[in-house]
């Protein structure tokens, strides 16, 4: 990625310092609501008293960061559905421009952006921010408002290709800010996939379309703007067991406690979807091989809204011997060839028409699976997955060799279960007990599993796909190394 939206509050100063150093473009925004509340006791309760001070604090602190290229003035604001939104939007935009007139302004909105009340706000801004609603509307919106500049301020992770396509083909569409870069705690399981019957899968697709329709969003936000607690209405128990089962396909119950929709997991490891996004947006002849999670007999994987179909970059599938596995390959090359144990399985194109992707059905046999990116008759890249044996040892890798003895510096240590040949065993799921000696302490432990309910403040953690993370905090004492 080359850009970040700091939804929905100003980030830490250290984050912006890092963006300055790395050259990441930043959309900096202050809050999630204006006056109209989304839930009880949110920022809307204090908006009148605090909005001006919070806008000033954000702009005055951040305006000298070269990484900031756009200011936001809010996210999914219900007032865009009613007449009062225009005046509120103007006072916010005027305040930002008084403090900094050098950057364009935007606002992220999931409803109809061309209705009069929304247009009255967006006409005062420089960029119209679309949350999940740009694909079905960008063409007619452009015809109606040919000077409008558009930006996808939030999007479904699985819609990466069509969102790249409209950004690539239309100069008035600036780009795509997906939800989200990294997994986070809260909005539990919105990006999780699950197993269901074929009937449930079909119903889920229909409900997904209904819940993300701009008409439904407009109705819900109009209610919020008029004082209705829409979230409380949604949270009410429905006595229909089928309705409850379907809602759990969207809002996954305990033990889910993390969102699971990020390109990076909770511990910072890249998921396959991040490599696909990288190849689509940044081009090049790279290739990346993954395997789709097998579906149990009679079941379908349900991956809707913020979920992507689960894939794993692994060729270690004990119990699947002889069964067909779907190998999904992402490639910026013209075509890919797939080999299993040096035998050619097949060749498929991976151009724009194929959405830079190819899928092969391969009977699972342990060994080496190799995807080769081709340009003409020339091999230009490859991605290799080799079957791992059972884990034989742990490998610990620190993110840096030297720490400051200031009581605050942190070292992030990756823990991996590897076989005798040093290959990661993705099926290792043992609980690891940590013990630390010397001038430091365990600050946290974690893994990428959004359903693992063990404490992050602990000295033990279960491996997830063979990995875990331990964070070590220094003390104020120097360590004398031999």
- Spans with pLDDT under 50 lasting ≥5 residues? none
**Mean of the pLDDT scores?**
94
Tell me the CATH topology of the largest domain: TIM Barrel
The CATH homologous superfamily name of the largest domain equals Glycosidases
Structure characterization notes:
It contains eleven helices and 23 strands. The protein has helices at residues 13-22, 47-62, 84-99, 116-122, 138-144, 160-169, 198-211, 214-225, 230-235, 241-250, 272-282; strands spanning 3-5, 25-28, 68-75, 105-109, 127-131, 150-154, 173-176, 194-196, 287-292, 300-302, 311-312, 324-331, 335-340, 343-349, 357-363, 368-375, 378-386, 393-398, 410-418, 431-433, 440-446, 460-462, 467-474. Strand 6, helix 6 (160-169) and strand 7 (173-176) form a beta-alpha-beta unit. It is globular, with a radius of gyration of 24 Å. The protein is 25% helix and 27% strand. With 482 residues, it is an alpha/beta fold. The protein folds into three domains: 3-176, TIM Barrel (Alpha-Beta Barrel); 304-386, Immunoglobulins (Immunoglobulin-like), CATH 2.60.40; 393-474, Immunoglobulin-like (Sandwich). The strands form six sheets. A seven-stranded parallel β-sheet has the order 1-2-3-4-5-6-7. The two termini are 42 Å apart.
């Amino acid at each position: 990625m080359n850009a970040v939206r700091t939804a929905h509050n100003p980030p830490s100063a250290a984050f912006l310092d890092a963006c300055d150093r790395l050259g990441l473009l930043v959309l900096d925004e202050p809050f999630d609501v204006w006056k109209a509340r989304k839930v009880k006791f949110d920022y809307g309760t204090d908006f009148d008293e605090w909005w001006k001070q919070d806008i000033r604090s954000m702009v005055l602190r951040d305006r000298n960061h070269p990484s900031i290229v756009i200011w936001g003035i809010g996210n999914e604001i219900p007032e865009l559905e009613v007449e009062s939104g225009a005046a509120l939007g103007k006072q916010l935009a005027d305040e930002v421009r008084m403090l900094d007139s050098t950057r364009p302004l935007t606002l992220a909105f999931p409803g109809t952006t061309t209705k009069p009340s929304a247009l009255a706000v967006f006409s005062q801004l420089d960029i119209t921010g679309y949350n999940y609603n740009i694909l079905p509307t960008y063409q007619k919106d452009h015809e109606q408002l040919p000077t409008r500049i558009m930006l996808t301020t939030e999007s479904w992770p699985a819609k990466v290709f069509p969102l790249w396509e409209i950004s690539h083909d239309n100069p008035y569409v600036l780009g795509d800010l997906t939800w989200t870069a990294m997994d986070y705690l809260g909005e539990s399981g919105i990006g999780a996939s699950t197993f269901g019957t074929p009937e449930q899968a079909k119903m889920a697709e229909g409900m997904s379309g209904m819940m993300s329709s701009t008409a439904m969003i407009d109705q819900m936000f109009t209610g919020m703007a008029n004082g209705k607690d829409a979230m409380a209405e949604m949270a009410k128990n429905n006595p229909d067991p089928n309705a409850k089962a379907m809602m759990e396909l969207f809002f996954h119950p305990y033990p889910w406690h993390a969102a699971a929709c990020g390109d990076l997991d909770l511990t910072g490891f890249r998921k396959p979807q991040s490599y696909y996004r990288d190849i689509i947006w940044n081009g090049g002849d790279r290739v990346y091989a993954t395997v789709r999670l097998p579906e149990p007999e009679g079941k379908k994987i349900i991956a809707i809204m913020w979920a992507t179909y689960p894939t794993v970059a692994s060729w270690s599938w004990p119990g699947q011997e002889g069964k067909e596995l779907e190998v999904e390959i992402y490639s910026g090359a013209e075509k890919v060839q797939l080999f299993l144990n040096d035998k050619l399985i097949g060749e498929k194109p991976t151009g724009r028409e194929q959405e830079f992707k190819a899928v092969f059905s391969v009977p699972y046999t342990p060994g080496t699976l190799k995807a080769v990116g081709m340009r003409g008759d020339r091999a230009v890249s490859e991605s290799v997955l080799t079957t791992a044996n059972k884990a034989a040892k742990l490998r610990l890798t620190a993110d840096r060799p030297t720490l400051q003895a200031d009581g605050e510096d942190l070292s992030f240590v990756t823990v991996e279960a590897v076989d005798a040949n040093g290959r990661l065993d993705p099926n290792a799921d043992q609980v690891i007990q940590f013990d630390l000696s010397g001038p430091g302490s365990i600050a946290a432990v974690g893994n990428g599993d959004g359903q693992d309910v063990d404490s992050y403040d602990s000295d033990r953690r279960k491996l997830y796909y063979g990995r875990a993370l331990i964070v070590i905090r220094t003390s104020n004492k120097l360590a004398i190394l031999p």
